[in-house]
Amino acid sequence: MKTRGKTLMERYEMEKLLGKGTFGKVHYARDLESSQGVAIKIMDKDRVLKVRLSEQVKREITTMRLVEHKNIVCLHEVMATWNKIYIIMEYAKGGELWDKVKRSGRLTEADAHRYFQQLISALDHCHSRGVYHRDLKPENLLLDENGDLKVSDFGLSAFSESRRTDGLLHTVCGTSMYIAPEVIRKTGYDGAKSDIWSCGVVLFILAAGYLPFQGPNLMEIYRKIHDSDFKCPNWFSHKLKRLLYKILNPNPSMRPSIQEIKESTWFRKGPREISAVNKKVLSENATTTNAARVLPSRRKEIAHEDMKSLVATNLNAFEIIALSAGLDLSGLFIKECRKETRFTSDKPVLAIIAKLEDAAKALNLRIRKTDNNTVSIQGRKEGRNGVLQFDTQIFEITPSCHLVQMKQTSGDLLEYEKLLEEGIRPRLKDVVWAWHGDDLQQKQE
Ligand code: ADE
Q1: Domain annotation covers residue 219
Q2: Which active-site residues does the annotation give?
Q3: CA 134 from centroid of its chain's CA atoms
Q4: Are 212 and 112 members of one domain?
Q5: Residue 83 φ/ψ region, left for φ over 0, alpha for ψ in the -120 to 50 degree band, beta for the rest
Q6: Residue at 289 is within a domain
Q7: Same domain for 228 and 165
Q8: Where is the Protein kinase domain (predicted)?
Q9: Atom of ligand 1 nearest to the CA of 92
Q10: Domain span at 57
């Protein structure tokens, strides 16, 4: 059916086809309200379900919600009709980086360096949240209007949860030319290390203009990948060669970590011709990455006996979507205006509870555990509209990431918002990774 010229839910006007991804077509569209250009990935629900890809689609959506970074294509919202799922995402105006490589044969080492730094910065951010891309290749690397990198297509990414008990990922995925030897060996692999391998392949392609592992058939290509049988062209600088031989190590345990890559001479300094502009990008990247990694000092996890039995509820991807502000899927089902606030945390459940207890104590509030893994916090005095109370639930997104949802259950809304802003939020800051869902609150005003 023709999509071009159609309007999606009276919100987006569909325009040209941008490309075909693993699970469906991607169209350029215009937001009718803001006139902003967006990219819309259209997936057929039937096809998704028939081929049992629903888990992957859910993963893609969830993953994109979890990772917000300037070098990652941002997910705006998700819409659904009876037979289609629409993923509305940031439009990367500059198109595929791969096209740029093809146009010029290869990139200068300075350009390859700049994109590699941005790629590593994006990957560092994802990995620190337990998210692995698993399908990194030049086609998934887009450019924005400033020529900066945007990593897209998280269709094959996986949460650390999907690991078996040995802590390794087991699904064979990724495109053959870029997959790491341990993925081919099917012995289970560390998602972070195999992404690093793919980054090495991407770096090689950017600076060389051709693939490092080539052969007349798949067997030969796999053999070369397995043995890391490749040769750097003579125009690569010595420092670049040294880094690539380290990254493309067939033994994942010997492969450098992201931190080690960031400490390498080529990554830090780049090739000799590196421009002042590139140096600026390097320092900006370093700042963002460091900011994302700063962790407040570890505190002793003391919690009330009763609280110790509180286990984080596991959320499936659609529940996360339903909880996510700004996603139309939740809008389809939830009519009432919710007085909810949410934040994500990379701290253990007990550390989050301990902070809630500290806050309640300091603010002279009652705190107790109720059913459904809920912590209920209550005022001691009558307010303008009865006693103020709000419930807090903690959900596990990945073992290292929790979603905490606070919902006012009684009392006056303004009193609640004041308490939240002035009392609760500042006291929770050490366990908060990012606050979400403020727009819902604004709607109620
Ligand atoms: N092709 C696939 N996804 C895209 C996006 N977000 N922007 C531009 N082109 C794309």
Answers
A1: yes
A2: 135
A3: 12
A4: yes
A5: alpha
A6: no
A7: yes
A8: 12-267
A9: 7
A10: 7-90
Element (H, E) at 197: helix 191-208
Report the separation in Å between the CA atom of 321 and the middle of ligand 1, taken as the mean of its atom positions: 22
**pTM flag (> 0.85):** no
**Chain segment 258-312, per-residue pLDDT in tens:** 999 999 999 998 776 544 444 444 344 433 332 222 222 222 233 344 444 444 4
- The answer to whether residues 349 and 311 touch, using CB atoms and an 8 Å cutoff, is yes
Q: How many domains does the chain have?
A: 3
Pocket test of ligand 1: the residue of 18, 140, 153 to mutate, having most ligand atoms within 8 Å of its CB, is 18
Tell me: do 30 and 175 sit in the same domain. no
Centre of ligand 1 from the C-alpha of residue 135, in Å: 15
Distances (CA, A) of 323 to 164, 327, 436: 27, 8, 10
Token code pair at residue 271: 């090739």
Q: Is 372 exposed, middle or buried (0-12, 13-18, 19+ CB in 10 A)?
A: exposed
Q: Where are the extended beta strands (E) located within 137-201?
A: 141-143, 149-151, 158-159
Q: In what order do the strands lie in the sheet with 141-143?
A: 95-96, 141-143, 149-151
